[in-house]
Amino acid sequence: MSAPLNSDATDEGVGMPLNRRIFIAVVIGLCAAYLAWPGVGVVGASDFNQLWYAARALLTGGSPYGAVGPGRTFDWPFPLFYPLPAVLVAVPFTAISPAAASMLFSGIAASLMVWVFTRNAPYRLAAVLSFSFYYAAAISQWSPLLIASVLIPGLGFLLVVKPTIGLALWLYKPHWQAVAGGVLLLLISMVVRPEWPIEWMETFGAGTHIRGPITTLGGPLILLALLRWRRPEARLLVALACVPHTTLLYEALPLFLVPASWTQSLVLVALNWVAQIVVITLQPYASLADRARTSATVSVALLYLPCLIMILRRPNEGDVPAWITRGLDRARTAIPGWSRT
Question: What is residue 339's predicted lDDT score, i.e. its pLDDT?
Answer without folding.
Answer: 53
